[in-house]
């Protein structure tokens, strides 16, 4: 009809110019028709991404513009024909029982159904469908075969699990973290940390199937949640596994033990503190039994999960030499490495002078020392058998220098004479030092002065007599006594050299006195034969030999007395 109208126009006009115009219009209309046909042929050509895991079913869509069923659909992969439908077996020339015919199927709408997807099926697919109105439709589908991440695991060691699954390690340890997983075709592993001072820090990452990370000398700041995240680089699917790690630690020092005085002096409050441990330790007050400590059969007074534990004991529970111990228990302490502090209890023992004498109208200081008691005793001075309290004032002055407690009594009178008690008390016992004060008047010292004078006189006389006797000792020894010390007489000397004790005497002539007033005595010494044989030899001796003997006699010795 359109062509007929154009012919009528040409025939009516009959003009060549008009004919040229008509030919241009026809060419333009033809070009527009061709463009419209080409547009209709490729309308709806899009690219769809389909991801499937191995052994899954993948459905690749083709014509989705309406409800029209394509008459023929051809699928191509990477430029090569894969299948055309609707019958996959007929198009490929394969029997229906072949594995390929069972896996690939073109559905009635032109979609490609792939059974049991396997690695190698991934790629870019092109669908070309012929529609009943002689139009064609093309679609592109990108098939991705991806699996995982699977078997994502994070492990930490050395670490001990708690009942809730939380892991525990100890300060100073070297801890290793392992993150692993599997993905197809590839993956990205990341180890992250989230703690008190950080939100989500990435510690390390890799594209391999496992990742190792190590922390040497781990500190409490490394306590937190550690995550192992595996992400498939194709499907972008991610799996995250996390675990919480606690870092236990204890202070290097031992617990601190102390005692506190209470209102009742027969009771004592023991306090034990051990700060700086995580988690809170268990403190235990108990009594030691030898080297077994509190852990064995020793009595337990108190035990609690705390960093400060107090216990109050009375006198009936305490005794001399008892060891009271506070023991700290913690998982960070190895067996046999428990930390503790202890006291070995001792009763008081006041020491001082039991007797003191003072002169009336003077001052005196009574001293008492108590430094052995544990816990320290409360020491005070008391007066009289009734042990009245001493109130400091113008009469009494109380002072203390370390363990020394002093009582100074001013302007002493006879009323101050008597017994004083230094009373020391700690939770174990009460001990007293009794001091008796004697007050003397000034007249009482007159007899003492006379007695001292007489004693000095006697001692002086004895010294003079002794000196006199010592200076005349030679006269007393050689004379006959004290009466003949000044008499002039001849001295006699008796010498004995024989076993027969033959004694001879000879007069000793006195020499003239010397200028110093002493006498000089000549002493002649003769040899006495000791046997008859010697006498015979003496008798046989010739006169000439005797003369020689007399001539060879040594000169007489002078002995001065």
Shape: rod-shaped
The helix-and-strand class reads alpha+beta
Please indicate the percent range of residues in DSSP E strands (runs of 2 or more).
35-45%
Determine the number of helices (DSSP H or I, runs of at least 4 residues): 8
- In whole angstroms, the N-to-C terminal distance is 193 Å
> What Rg do the Cα atoms give?
65 Å
User: What is the quaternary state of this protein?
Assistant: single chain
- Give the fraction of residues assigned to helices: 10-25%
Largest sheet properties = 6 strands, mixed
Mean pLDDT: 78
Give the strand order of the largest sheet, numbering strands 1, 2, ... along the chain.
10-11-17-16-13-14
Q: Spans with pLDDT under 50 lasting ≥5 residues? A: 1-17, 26-45, 88-98, 292-296, 485-496, 498-504, 530-561
How many strand elements?
Answer: 34
Task: Write a structural description.
- The chain has 8 helices and 34 strands.
- By secondary structure, it is of the alpha+beta class.
- The strands form 9 sheets. It has a 6-stranded mixed β-sheet, with no helix packed on it. A 5-stranded mixed β-sheet has the order 1-8-7-3-4.
- A hairpin with a 5-residue loop joins β18 and β19.
- The longest helix has 27 residues.
- It is rod-shaped.
- The protein starts with a helix and ends with a strand.
- The relative contact order is 0.06.
- The N terminus and C terminus are likely disordered.
């Amino acid at each position: 009809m359109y062509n007929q109208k154009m012919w009528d126009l040409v025939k009516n006009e009959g003009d060549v110019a008009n004919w040229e115009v008509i030919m241009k219009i026809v060419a333009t209309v033809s070009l527009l028709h061709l463009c419209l046909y080409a547009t209709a042929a490729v309308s709806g050509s899009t690219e769809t991404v389909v991801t499937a895991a191995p052994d899954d079913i993948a459905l690749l869509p083709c014509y989705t513009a309406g409800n029209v069923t394509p008459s023929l659909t051809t699928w191509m992969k990477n430029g090569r024909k894969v299948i055309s439908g609707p019958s996959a077996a007929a198009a490929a020339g394969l029997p229906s029982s072949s594995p390929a015919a069972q896996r690939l199927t073109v559905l009635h709408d032109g979609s490609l159904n792939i059974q049991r997807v396997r690695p190698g099926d991934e790629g870019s697919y092109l669908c070309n469908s012929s529609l009943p109105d002689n139009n064609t439709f093309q679609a592109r589908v990108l098939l991705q075969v991806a699996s995982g991440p699977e078997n994502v695991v994070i492990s930490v060691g050395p670490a001990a699990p708690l009942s809730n699954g939380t892991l525990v390690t100890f300060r100073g340890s070297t801890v290793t973290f392992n993150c692993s997983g599997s993905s197809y075709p590839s993956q990205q592993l990341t180890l992250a940390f989230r703690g008190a001072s950080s939100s989500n820090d990435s510690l390390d990452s890799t594209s391999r199937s496992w990742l190792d990370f190590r922390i040497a000398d781990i500190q409490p700041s490394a306590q937190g949640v550690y995550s192992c995240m595996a992400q498939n680089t194709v499907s972008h699917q991610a799996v995250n596994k996390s675990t919480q790690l606690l870092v236990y630690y204890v202070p290097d020092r031992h617990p601190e033990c102390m005692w506190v005085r209470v209102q009742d002096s027969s009771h004592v409050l023991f306090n034990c503190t051990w700060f700086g441990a995580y988690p809170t330790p268990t403190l235990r007050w108990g009594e030691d039994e030898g080297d077994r400590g509190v852990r064995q059969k020793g009595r337990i007074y108190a035990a609690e999960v705390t960093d400060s534990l107090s216990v109050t004991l009375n006198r009936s529970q305490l005794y001399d030499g008892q060891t009271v111990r506070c023991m700290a228990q913690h998982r960070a302490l190895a067996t046999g490495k428990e930390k503790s502090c202890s006291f070995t209890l001792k009763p008081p023992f006041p020491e001082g002078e039991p007797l003191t004498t003072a002169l009336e109208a003077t001052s005196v200081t009574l001293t008492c020392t108590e430094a052995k008691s544990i816990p320290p005793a409360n020491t005070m001075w008391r007066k009289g058998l009734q042990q009245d309290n001493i109130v400091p004032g113008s009469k009494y002055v109380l002072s203390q220098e370390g363990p020394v407690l002093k009582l100074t009594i001013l302007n002493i009178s006879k009323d101050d004479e008597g017994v004083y008690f230094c009373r020391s008390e700690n939770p174990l016992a009460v001990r007293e030092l009794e001091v008796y004060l004697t007050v003397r008047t000034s007249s009482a010292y007159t007899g003492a002065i006379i007695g001292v004078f007489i004693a000095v006189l006697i001692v002086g006389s004895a010294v003079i007599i002794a000196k006199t006797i010592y200076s005349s000792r030679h006269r007393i020894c050689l004379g006959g006594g004290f009466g003949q010390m000044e008499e002039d007489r001849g001295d006699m000397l008796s010498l004995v050299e024989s076993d027969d004790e033959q004694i001879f005497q000879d007069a000793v002539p006195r020499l003239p006195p010397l200028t110093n007033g002493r006498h000089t005595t000549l002493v002649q010494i003769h040899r006495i034969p000791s046997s008859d044989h010697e006498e015979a030899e003496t008798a046989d001796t010739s006169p000439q030999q005797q003369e020689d003997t007399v001539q060879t006699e040594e000169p007489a010795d002078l002995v001065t007395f």
